[in-house]
Amino acid sequence: MRELSLHILDILENSRKAKADKIELQISENPGKNSFIIIIADNGKGIKKELLENITDPFVTSRTTREVGLGLSLFKNAAERTNGDFEIKSKKGRGTVVRAEFEYDNIDRAPLGDIATTISNFIAANGEELEIIYEHSFADEKFEFDSREIKKELDDLSIQSSAIVSWIQEYLAENIKEIRGGEAF
Amino acid sequence: MKSLAELKELRDKVKKDMKKRDQGTRPEIIVGMGTCGIAAGAREILKAILEEVETRDIDVRVTQTGCIGMCEKEPLIDVRMPGKERITYGNLSTSDVKEIISKHVINGNVVQELVIARHSE
């Protein structure tokens, strides 16, 4: 994948398929510590222990279950080739947490990419069924987004309406740009 | 800078736009968002669909699905018109999306040359 945000989109799709109704996404960029961390936590159906042990091995994965595929292996590989770290924890019936850490300045670290569109598109297609809580920090700056707060303002209007989705996209892009000191991605 | 307070104003403006959950009566577009779809450009396809829906101000339900086993034909979308068979389009570019929306979703004419499967449900 050319952008880290495409990996994020991929993991979000896993959570959606696992019937999560709450997904927490945390992005922590810390150039001073040469660290870039992405954490995605959901309350979906979780992964059973036997499968979890081999889940990032694309050749062990059984395609017929369609619970996993290449996505996690690609994400793990993207982190490890920057001398980073990858971890997945899951409890059947409770949910799954995926954590990837990258070396910030590593030449093999893909750019974050268009995370604002990634999230707003995901809301456009799934926002009525689930909540997304997104926290993005860059050094000491921090931005928080919670779809439940958006819904509170909307009454019975759907969060998936196109005008609301474009507003969310712009809102995210502006705030991400702000905490990153002028660069949205 | 945008603030959450603006949302109320926007809400009142678009209230008529879309009512929650009345699938079945509206056209539905489903975008393949598995790893294969994403790697092939599905995010840009979904973005193009949303832009077109907004520009043309049409009432369409847009959702996503995972890998459906036709990875080599990604990016792909399904179009389901109320009471009609579901059509799968594949190997799409963003300009194909515009064509599908104007011909199929708005005017009801399937874009034959882009169809890869039909499903009657």
UniProtKB/TrEMBL annotation, chain A:
One GO BP annotation of this record: phosphorelay signal transduction system
The entry's keywords: ATP-binding, Kinase, Nucleotide-binding, Phosphoprotein, Transferase, Two-component regulatory system
InterPro entries with a match to the protein in the record: HATPase_C_sf, HATPase_dom, His_kinase_dom, Sig_transdc_His_kin-like_C
Reaction(s) catalysed by this chain's protein: ATP + protein L-histidine = ADP + protein N-phospho-L-histidine
Presence of the UniProt keyword Glycoprotein in the record: no
Domain Histidine kinase as annotated: residue spans: 1-106
UniProt keyword Zinc, yes or no: no
Gene3D superfamilies listed in its UniProt record: Histidine kinase-like ATPase, C-terminal domain (3.30.565.10)
Highest taxon in the source lineage: Bacteria
Top-level EC class: transferase
GO function terms (MF aspect): ATP binding; protein histidine kinase activity
One Pfam family this sequence matches: HATPase_c
EC numbers for this chain: 2.7.13.3
Listed name of the protein: histidine kinase
TrEMBL record, chain B:
Keyword Iron-sulfur tagged: yes
UniProt keyword annotation of Metal-binding present: yes
Alphabetized UniProt keyword annotations: Iron, Iron-sulfur, Metal-binding
GO molecular function: iron-sulfur cluster binding; metal ion binding
Pfam name, any one: 2Fe-2S_thioredx
Domain of life of the organism encoding this protein: Bacteria
Gene3D superfamilies: Glutaredoxin
PANTHER family attached to this UniProt entry: NADH-QUINONE OXIDOREDUCTASE SUBUNIT F
Name recorded for this polypeptide: (2Fe-2S) ferredoxin domain-containing protein
Species of provenance: Halanaerobium polyolivorans
